[in-house]
């Protein structure tokens, strides 16, 4: 039988800091929708960096989100964290300026894209959007031998 342990809050924070990507769940046209997404953890805040489009439209309409992050070594050795919360798009320049350094630090390849405006294949102007997740709940499970509960 597989032994599954609850992860402690410190272990969850460390895990989220380490991984940096997961699956973002939100409501699209009244139905659950999940997509892969990079995130950025700074202290206890989670930030999402994306371009405006379907995802931002849906999150603005219903900001309740779920972020699932996992690490699977094999069927017997894995960790998984679920974060639920409310997404708030950053609109104040001071908040954006505060978030950009750690976003760039975590993903240096974003810098050229951040510094210019571009168009997508359909000729639409792409604009960046940054969201802060106000965390409601975090839980994690692991099959690892030692948990830091």
TrEMBL record:
Signal peptide boundaries: none
Q: Record's InterPro entries?
A: Pyridox_Oxase-rel, Split_barrel_FMN-bd
Q: Which organism is it from?
A: Phormidesmis priestleyi ULC007
State the Pfam families in the record. Answer: Pyridox_ox_2
PANTHER family (UniProt xref): 5-NITROIMIDAZOLE ANTIBIOTICS RESISTANCE PROTEIN, NIMA-FAMILY-RELATED PROTEIN-RELATED (PTHR34071), FLAVIN-NUCLEOTIDE-BINDING PROTEIN (PTHR34071:SF2)
This one is known as Pyridoxamine 5'-phosphate oxidase family protein
Which top-rank group of organisms is this from?
Bacteria
Q: Please list every transmembrane segment annotated in the UniProt record, as residue ranges.
A: none
């Amino acid at each position: 039988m597989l032994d599954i342990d609850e992860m402690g809050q410190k272990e969850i924070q460390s895990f989220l800091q380490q991984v940096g990507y997961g699956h973002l769940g939100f409501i699209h046209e009244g139905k659950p929708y999940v997509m892969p997404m990079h995130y950025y953890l700074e202290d206890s805040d989670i930030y999402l960096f994306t371009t405006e489009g379907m995802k931002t439209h849906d999150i603005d309409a219903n900001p309740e989100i779920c972020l699932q992050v996992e690490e699977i070594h094999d069927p017997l050795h894995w960790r998984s964290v679920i974060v639920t919360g409310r997404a708030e798009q950053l609109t104040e320049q001071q908040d954006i300026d505060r978030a950009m350094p750690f976003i760039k630090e975590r993903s240096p390849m974003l810098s050229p894209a951040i510094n210019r405006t571009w168009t997508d294949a359909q000729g639409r102007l792409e604009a960046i959007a940054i969201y802060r997740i106000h965390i409601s709940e975090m839980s994690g499970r692991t099959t690892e031998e030692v948990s830091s509960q």
